[in-house]
Amino acid sequence: MALHKFIKSEYDVVVVGAGPAGSTTAERCAEYGLSTLLLEKRQEIGAPVRCGEGVSQKNMDELGMKLPNHVWRQRILGAYVYAPNGKEIKIRGENTDGYILERKAFDKWLAENAAKKGAMVMTKATVNDLILDKVTDAGGKEIVTVKGVKANIGGDNFEIRSKVVVAADGVESMILRMAGIRSQKKLHLVDSAFQYLMTNIKNRDPEMIEIWLGEKITPRGYIWNFPKGQESGNVGIGVGGIWYGKTAKEFLDEWAHTQDWLKDGTVIETVCGLVPVGGLWKDMTGNGILGVGDAVNMVNPIHGGGIAESIFGGRIAGDIIGWAVKKDDVSKESLNVYNQRWEAERGQKLREIERVREMFEKLSDEEMNILAEVLSGEDLADLARGKNVVKLATLYTKFQAKRAASKIKSAVGV
Ligand SMILES: Cc1cc2nc3c(=O)[nH]c(=O)nc-3n(C[C@H](O)[C@H](O)[C@H](O)COP(=O)(O)OP(=O)(O)OC[C@H]3O[C@@H](n4cnc5c(N)ncnc54)[C@H](O)[C@@H]3O)c2cc1C
Description:
By secondary structure, the protein is α/β, with parallel strands linked by helices. The chain is built from ten helices and 18 strands. Strands 1, 2, 8, 9, 10, 11, 17 and 18 form an eight-stranded mixed β-sheet that branches.
């Protein structure tokens, strides 16, 4: 049966991309009774995986999400963070627990939830272009309004009209650009990530994730092991988006060869992708369109986690679209409430975290070793949540003063 024959020529909402952002937005829109179409270009939702698959219990609680057993693989209770000199900080206590998901199952579960609320979900459905209405106002300015999408679904071309189009098309988003919205990402704010799903390895403790820091092994980033049982894990790296003389894979491979616990390991899946780690948007809307998730950099800038942020964003997007469609005003002015609500609920906090990352990325290995001596596990967990920034800022100012003093000394030859 050619299911795509059931696709209507008009919907209230078309959502492009069935990742966490798109499926959540579609679910919320359908809950408001809006006719909703969710289009995913891949043949299988959630595959191939481009993720370390870690989420915190705290975020799941805030979202009120109870994860069914089949969408996660490993329960996590805390983390070991290793400074460049090997000194470890153990983070374990209240609010340090979480899960390593199975994104192939998790993303499908989110899409199923959208479908259960009434959204129509289609795979092998690529949006190639937008239907745009262009008029020139009295001042000679061109006003663009998005009126729907042009998509290839299962080999056939469709023009589907909608009141709102949602760009949930991930980090490489093109949809906003098709609407004339400037959406290029700044290269230095996008990390390049590479990961092996390894098996036959010796995890130190499957209930603890591990993080390695150091500008030499992983400049402006970190190496991670997110265990999946005692003998498997997502072993990956993120490095800053400028060229450090080696690719992310080369950095990871070089480091992996120094790790005894990986020496019998084999690779059963290779993952690579980009992670926006900053550049949070102030304005994510146009006439009849808005962006959500990685498409508009909704990511925690310190650890690059975007799953929960995409779901927070998708819920807010769905609420605002539900409200705007009901009052029959999907203009940019009307959708601006989305920017305001996201800023109040998520944006402000993420901007604080971005400041922490900016400080961290300027630290030398030596300074990081000093930090590892003075910061507790609790301090580190707080910093990743944008709390207790003053403590880091004070230390950072001391480092800066020391650096400036040594520069002056060497300039005057003392
Ligand atoms: C190596 C790596 C490790 C990561 N680890 C973690 C982690 O441990 N924890 C965490 O929280 N986050 C992690 N992230 C980030 C996380 O994966 C993303 O933040 C999250 O997937 C964003 O969700 P999204 O729905 O915005 O985008 P995506 O999940 O990327 O979904 C976008 C979807 O849109 C589809 N699409 C794109 N263009 C079109 C089109 N034209 N037509 C139709 N469909 C289209 C894509 O196929 C895709 O399915 C990691 C990322 C990488 C690369």
